[in-house]
Fold each of these.
Amino acid sequence: MDILNALVAFLNFVFIPGVAYGAQLALGALGATLIYSILRFSNFAHGDTMAIGTVFVILLTWGMQGMGISFGPLPTALLALPFGIVLTAILLLATDRVVYRYYRRVKAAPVILVMASLGVMFILNGVTRFIIGTSDISFTDGERFIMTAGDFRESTGLAEGLAIRTTQGVTLVVAIIAVGLLFWFLQKTRTGKSMRAFSDNEDLALLSGINPDRVVAVTWIVAAALATTAGTLYGLDKGFSPFTYFQLLLPIFAAAIVGGLGSPIGAIAGGFVIAFSEVMVTYAWKKVVTYLLPDSMAPSGLIQLMSTDYKFAVSFLILIIVLLVMPTGLFKGKSI
Amino acid sequence: MSGAQMTSQAAAAGPARGLLLAAFVAALFIATGMFQSWTLALLIVNMALISSIMALGVNIQWGYAGLFSVGTMGFVALGGLSVVLVSSAPAPGGWSAGGTGIVLGLAMGAATIAAAVMAASKMAPGRRRTVIVAAILIIGFFLFRAVFDPAVQAVEANNPATHGNLGGLGLPVLLAWPVGGLLAAAAAWAIGKAALGLRSDYLAIATLGIAEIILAVLKNEDWMARGVKNVISLPRPVPYEVDLQRTQGFVDWALSWGFDPVTASSIVVRLMYTGLFAVVLLALIALSQAALHSPWGRMMRAIRDNEVSAEAMGKDVTRRHLQVFILGSAVIGIAGAMMTTLDGQLTPGSYSPLRFTFLVWVMVIVGGSGNNWGSVLGGFLIWWLWVMVEPIGNWLMVVITSGMADGWLKGHLINSAAHMRLLTMGVILLLVLRFAPKGLLPER
Amino acid sequence: MAEPFLIGDAMTGGYGGADILHSCTIAVNPGEIAVIVGPNGAGKSTAMKAVFGMLSLRSGAVRLKGEDITALTPQARVAKGMAFVPQTANIFTSMTVEENLEMGAFLRRDDIKTTMEQVYTLFPILRDKRYQAAGELSGGQRQQVAVGRALMTQPSVLMLDEPTAGVSPIVMDELFDRIIEVARTGISILMVEQNARQALEIADKGYVLVQGANRFTDTGQALLADPDVRKSFLGG
């Protein structure tokens, strides 16, 4: 029995990666849920919005690195992030102007808007590949670790190491700041409240003199900020490749639905539920279990519930269970 | 909306407009044959026929019933799997290595799920039920793994360089087509049970997920179809080119017409495929048209146009939706089996949602949702474009960059031409959706 | 006779199909309560929506303080001092009572504290529940939130579409009392009511509509006393 080492192994391989991934998913799901609650459709282009936002950040990062600008121990991409957000916001506002606005005017069925978002997805995907190609890109720089496994072992004398990568720390801090800003904005500012009112009851919002065009524009800007941040953090942590971002669509929507589509708190909770389930189901528990059990009972197999190739199956299964058991999600989303 | 007026307009414009468009698309293919090569033209025709069937399947779901499913890729892949399972020869030593274990494991998995579903439906809701259902699932899962895993390892260790799988039943490959439809239908039933009857977006997301999972299974379960190691040289329903070239009668026939026997053999083989595919397409269209104009089809459209009032009239909307979802998916599964037959191999790595799911959607929307012939037209037109956009894009880029100095930008632009496809398809989809939402051949 | 403060004059129109209103006239003066009653399907709500600009008129006009506002959108009419409380979905259920009131005052850029105080004085229960989500309140309290939200724009006309639908008789009396109080502050009230008898009792002016046209128009008391009205519309 070695509870301490088991705990460290758990933290190192499950908890810390889960927290970082959960924060990234939560930011992605927040953007999707916000678009759903204001514009009332599931935006299939959201994954590719994250991708292109990240592309902007990568290009700006390269530019900054070329000019010799760095952020000390932190990734330069964080300096580029605000500018990336501005570019993404401009792109999304332009998309809305060219594509979505028309369907709002003619009051098209939500499914038509979803279809239009498929078209946008194709285009963004093409543009992303056009700009940056299809290969994997790592754009993180600065200090690699906040704490290395070796340092941890040395200072604690434990056999297991605990490593915290800078990108994981950055993910958590940035995500907390972003979520804090978002909730402050939605709860305390006039514009944020008007967005909530519009999401709650569109007709009454119009009767109250809330300007729908303004609400929609602000929504796209906020969605751009969330998507670019989520994409950049994910890319810093795990590397950038266009197709991965498209595939993130499934866990992101699963997170949003599990939490309750349209509910911001739900999106955050859903993000962590999905991330932890994915990590825990695909983690080989052999190490942790070996520490906990007496030597005679040491497991021979990997004790892995599912291979990592099936990580999408995890988010999918959770999604199906939620659909079957409580279709409105953990936090009572807008509709079933 | 003045529905009656629009329908009559479409009907009046229908036949002439349809023929004109069909002639235009035919001209595209003839031009491809004349200016490039007939083998290429036939290759595109064959895939266009298959794409048309896929589009037909999506049209049954979307056009008839308004169901928004984006799982096409998964059903296509299931069709492909059926070809391996039905027609490839059994792997020597595969079954004896662990065949029974795998079958037993799968049966136990199925029994576990059935038991859980039964417990959930028979027992009163409450904590007790939750605990028992969870216990059944957890215990069942570990039992399943205990039986299944060693069997799989044994099978996959059996001559992994060439086999490592169970292989198929060695039956005629044409039998795999209906089996592909059945596999897809079974998957559609399971997913439809969970996701239908909720918001339309949920079906979309659930089907997006099931497609990814089917593909993951195909890529990773080597015992089934060798995963990403691919299954090659699947049996064909038509003769091989080399065999034709060796047949004296064929060579004489080709020479008597003044053809090169090698070219003639590949053209004849492709024409045979064309014939087979065309028969299936026409049969499916005949069935779909009959269904569309039957009382069942009228009811489907009534539900699509006004779900609330149909429900008020006592129609079981969710049940009807499940029916139509299964039917459409089965058609897609058939097309998937046909495609793998045409390729002669199953390569799970080549399935991508952009190519198989969303491109088929573009075909349906462009062709005209709700119109079966529209799906065929969309299938031919969009598939031709998909194939041709890349060379056209390349050529365009070369022209655009011809004035540029050689360098990074020029190289980048020329290399990027490959991505023009996605861009073009997105633009086409948006343009049609915006300016001709009823498609080229509107529903009649 | 002088032009009334707000008048929907000889309004004819419908929702695109056949006309629902046939030369229907509805008017109200400051501090007055005007009530529209009539059988089901008489076009009561439609008449009110027409005054508020929620359907386009084929002929007729709507004038506020003598100004022709027929062409204005509902939103523009809100800016002109008209407030509308729909029959259903008339509050932001996920927002607190106070946020509902704030949203009502969205167009105002000045200090809204005094108006909010006035609303809380009018509906004291809302002050106690100000930080509670409006969706968690009882039916009667929700109606108070809805009326309160509408009052936040400091309107000169308050339009209520069946404010007492689905509330208990006690709550209904209570609501009518509040509505009288609102009218005393000089606001014109135009309301559609199912409970014709009770509504006419507090009405300065009553409009009995049948099939989209004016059948009887008089003071509330006179209509209540009219044997024809009693027999046909008030159940004897």
Amino acid sequence: MTDSQTEARVPANRVSGIGRLLIAVYGVLALAATGRSFVQIVAAFDDAPLAYSLSALAAVVYIVATVALIKRSALWYRIAWTTISFELLGVLVVGTLSLIDPALFQHKTVWSVFGQGYGFVPLVLPLLGMWWLARHPVSHDESHA
Amino acid sequence: MIDWFTWLQLAIAVPGGLLCVILGMVGRKPTDLTMGATALVELLLIVQLAAAIAAPLAGNNATGSLLEFYTYLVSAILLPVAAGFWALVERSRWSTVILGVTCLSVAVMIYRMNQIWNVQGS
């Protein structure tokens, strides 16, 4: 991978390079989580209100994180950190609980078994997102852009 | 779902997606080839939609949840369109990678749709 080299040459004020890919993957995951929770809630919400509410919450957080990564302002930068941290926490807590006590999460969520049903993308993505945010802080002079 | 058509979709979406990811990684901007592969994936999805609507009339009924099936199908149809617009607006290597990631995501969704139609509930 030559990402680190190309990244270094990109002017700091351009949201470019691999960040675009990150946003796209977030968008796909947001769509996947939204689709799943839509089906769960429409078809059988009463079966597992907790798991399905969690699915819906996860979907909303993924959508907000996607938007926050696109927008370049100090406020959205903080929102991006918050939502991505929440995702990491969610996938770690729900992932661990689903292994320790499977009865608690019999109904699948996007975070069950560390996002196994989604190729562990939900586990890897927040880490990549944090890495990207840390490398591309929004300074005050570009926060109006 | 018609079995052979599903496999045709996968036979185009998977190599097409890999091709786009590789070409993007080596620095190619979106071309007729990579845009064409994505457009073909989209076209086959539209045909799949028509086939899915028509199949029950011919006695080919889904074994699993139709709601889940159509949520996947509609989401899958939206993806290549979004990626294609992106590639037109931003002509960079990453747009080519995004075309590839989209085709591969669609392949996974088609596979799941096939499970819902043929395996789930049977």
Amino acid sequence: MKNDIIIEIKNVNKSYDTKPVVKNLSLNIKRGEFVTLLGPSGCGKTTTLRMIAGFEQPTSGTIYFNGVDITQLPPHKRNVNTVFQKYALFPHLTVFGNIAFGLKLKLVEDGEPTLNKKGQLVQKMRKLTKKEIVDKVNHALKMVDLEDYGHRSVNSLSGGQQQRVAIARALVNEPEVLLLDEPLGALDLKMRKDMQLELMSMHKKLGITFVYVTHDQEEALTMSDKIIVMKDGVVQQIGTPTKIYDEPANAFVADFIGESNILSGTMIKDFCVDISGHRFECVDKGFKHNEPIDVIIRPEDIRIVEPTADNCLVVAEVLSCVFKGDHYQVTALTFGDERNEIIIHDNVEVKVGDKIGLYIKPFDFHIMHKARLINTLEGEIYEEGVVEMCEGRFNCTSTLPEGTKVSIKVDFDDVELTDDEEDGTIGATVISSIYKGSYWQCIVRTDTYYDFFVDTDYEWLIGDRVGINIAPDKIILEAIPEPTEEVAND
Amino acid sequence: MTKKFKFKFNRRAFAYPYMIFMLLFIVTPLVIVLINAFLADDGSFTLKNFGEFFSNSGGGMTVLGNSLVIGLVTTLICLVIGYPVAYFLAKYHASNKILVLLFILPMWVNFLIRTLSTKAIFMALDVNLGMGTVLFGMVYNYLPYMILPLHTTLVSIDHSYIEAAEDLGADKFTVMTKTIFPLSLSGVASGITMTFIPAISTFAISEILSSSKIYLFGDAINMHFSKTTNSFGVGSVMSLVMLVLVVITNGIANLTSKDEEVKSVL
């Protein structure tokens, strides 16, 4: 059903100056849904929300509301209301004045539409009466449990109360869609939990569409009907909380949502995966033979068994065991040629140094394609033995002549990161850092916006500046054939 | 038992130089003015000076009335011209600091020089010097004092308030009247204080730009103290009246805005 969809975003791009923030975003939001845009800061989720609200215009693409193009419509003409991150309550108005602000500007239909002289249907509009406004505001105040606070100044309220006023101010206008921009970010943990439940019950009661922006995966999993995971302005996965949690689309989603063990492996054949020399049965198929893949295993899907038990798949040594209230968090190192660190959530207590067996159901190996197998980029030979890429000059072993355009391949292992940006040939910013059992896979972004995938032994902090070095013999170069010029035109 | 006075050198000591200065050059003169107001020519206590001023025998009350009217008109014109200017300066603040500088620049030139140049221009253009030219000179001189506090307040208004208003259905005009203007009231109040008080107490501007046809309160006070005839008494009374007006204006400004910033002006 097409009219089930209230908001449709189609091929939307947004850039500030030349920096892209949202890249080719397309998504549908169904009427009455609680949709969460989830992602780390700077992933474009707030920008997306602001484009729905009308505060930002997309650089390209279209936004439909009830099937009508609203891309260029100013915010005050859109039937959506926003709860702002820092509430943005008007300090010159009382609580009542804040909530009544929208109502005083609202026009409602006055009586039945009548025919004018030309025979067209005309709908008279009128402003709300004072009594109607008072009634509506009081009703909204009651809904957020602030009945006696109407006369108070907004600055005299606590953070939680201000939050409620902000929600009441938005909901009192009876919007078709309520937009919430990290509304609980400024509250303490307990208050946040309470407000989560309250927002959920409001959503159920009112039946309107909620679009919620957060970076808190737990909040998203608790509240949403549908989660849209974003990273770098690109949608990574859209799905129900269960789907996102159980079947993350890629290593980023798996790492961002909940705790997980992310390991590199090889798909030997259908239903059989190899991780560091151990073979496991799984339920995935359709991969190429011996295709390198990422395997994701949730800590709570691993069971601790006796090392001698029949169902023991792999033996590991306990590194630590921490009580977490409802489970023990066990860190263990697997035995084998290549040892992987695994996090396990189980309710048995084990001692450090113990040998334990691990059992994982075939269903719980989540297998996904690797985002990239090798770093590939383009550059140019600066002079013999030196190649220029990402505005830096690297020594290489190639003997290609100066000026040759080349394609460059560098293995993840062969990119060296330096703590001090000055020590590297070029500088870069760490944008992602994911632990893969025995090493960290980082993504570092150069100043020319190329993302290097790097496998390192250390964790690099996201946002840090680092230097990049590559050993000359590790740069794999290949000349790009010059396109043959067409001479015969004149 | 004798109490020992010991000079302790602590942080408070840094304030002493100015406190002494204040005592000598602000408090003492005020006291002298106060005493003068009650002194007759022969040095005896009298209320005659007050009588002379308030009975308008020397035209003092008329001048005061004129000054208040001109001060009000000046302030109003400054507000009407200054608000939009301050608004646009604030809106394009980030990209255009030079523009802000251009509006403050006249303040760097001595006001006498500015006023004399204005007079020269009017004379060259054959404009009759009178009320119009005086008002022009006043607005020209005090406009920056209106724009600056307005600009400061407008720049500091969080953009999310504007977005919240738009979100709640306000078009551009309503955003202006229902959100931006009320939020900038503290700036309006301090702009008015900073324009109105100097405008009613100014001297020279009206004298120069009206060829001494129009006398304002400041000129009148100036005259009483510089005349060969000794009328320090009446001059002092007028100074006191001026002081009361300043206090009243500040009081009103503080009432209209609960903002800290304005209170600090007093």
